[in-house]
Amino acid sequence: MSTTFASFRDKRLISVFVFGIASGFPWLMIGSVLSAWLKDESLSRSAIGLFGAIFAVYSFNWLWAPLIDRIKPLFLGQRRGWIAQMQWVIIGCCLWMSSLDAQVDLFYIALCGLFIAIASATQDIAIDAYRIDVISEQEKDTMSAASSLATAGWWTGYGGLGAIPFLLADLPGWHWQMIYLVLAAIMVMCFIATLLAKEPDIDRDALLREAKARYSALAGDSQSAFNKLSAWLLLTLIEPFREFFQRSGARLAVKLLCFIFLFKIGEAFLGRMSIVFYKEIGFSNTEIGTYSKLLNWWVTIIFSILGGMVNIRYGIFRGLLIAGIAMAASNLLFALMAVVGPHKGWFVVTIILDGFTSAWATVAMVAFISLLCNRAFSATQYALMASLSVLSRTLLASSSGMLVDGLGGNWALFFVITALMVIPSLIILTSLKDKIAEVETSR
């Protein structure tokens, strides 16, 4: 047990936690805050759900992730440089959003949200790579601790800080455009934290030496600009994916990717409609901010750390299995809340269990994906796998509003369906038990 706690005392985890905050905060801007704003402007459930399509950007960030691995910014280093630049883009977009009117500028609100999503997804690539790079491959327990604190940080940004907009929204004289100015100010503080973080000390040239030699040979002996560019592009765009599939084997790699894609799809459908659900059954903005954000924040932090300890002590497979079963159970609680109505006590119980399942599942998944990555291509390979998890939470879940409408507004049935969505991933998980054990013991 002392070894388990020792893993959480590493000073590097402070930066991991803070970067987790910076990663989760933009989801608030284009997720629950935007949904609440549009709901107050009387947009339909289907329209609000379709706005979630901008999150699809997170599902495709692996397309430009190789550039984050290979192009070094002019300041702050390979990882912090990219993080800082994207944070300023997000700040600028918040300032733009504060000037828009939802009744006449709906297109520009969607466009601004898209820009925030692109910058945030790019920031996430660098943040995930930072976490993998700053901790060596041999420090498996520390990686699990880092995964739990990254999750706790993400929920601090999304949930803890996420309560602020909803508490402000119910105050006299406040409107959603003004709230985006507050969001911009908070993002400035995240930028200051980026300046104070320490860049990972990694010899990237040494890690890439073998791959560089391979692609230089393929390009031939000519020193022409075309051949040099070809070798650079092959190394940057092809090698990260080739290395992953060769190391895992094509069949196993596909199975791993399928599991990652399916694992949180039910939670994604639920999450996209949760704010709309809370408002429709009668909860106020203040109650949503207090219970869904503040309470969920503390629950998530506690269970993120506990989830990390379970992974360290009992392994990632058990962590994923427990999380998957609990996710289905928490979705069924939402179904019961749809029947009971706006009962604060039941809301608290549901939020606590939902926070537990979200945190536990995320910690186990982050640790699992991190261990699968080769540090030479940490940004690209993590982005490839994480984007599949996000794909179910973004592109597919954007149809969640249509599903509710198709069910005639039957929220209880909707939540039962989301609970059943976890079953296919658990079937795949059982077949991956040996592979997960192999990855844990080899790192």
TrEMBL record:
Keywords carried by this UniProt record: Membrane, Transmembrane, Transmembrane helix, Transport
Keyword Transmembrane: yes
Localisation per UniProt entry: Membrane
Topology relative to the membrane: Multi-pass membrane protein
Cross-referenced InterPro entries: AmpG_permease/AT-1, MFS, MFS_trans_sf
Top-rank lineage group of the source organism: Bacteria
Residue stretches in coiled coil: none
GO molecular function: transmembrane transporter activity
One Gene Ontology cellular component: membrane
TM helices/strands, residue ranges: 12-34, 46-68, 80-100, 106-127, 148-168, 174-197, 252-275, 295-312, 319-340, 346-372, 384-404, 410-429
NCBIfam families assigned: 2A0125 (TIGR00901)
Name the UniProt record assigns to this protein: MFS transporter, PAT family, beta-lactamase induction signal transducer AmpG
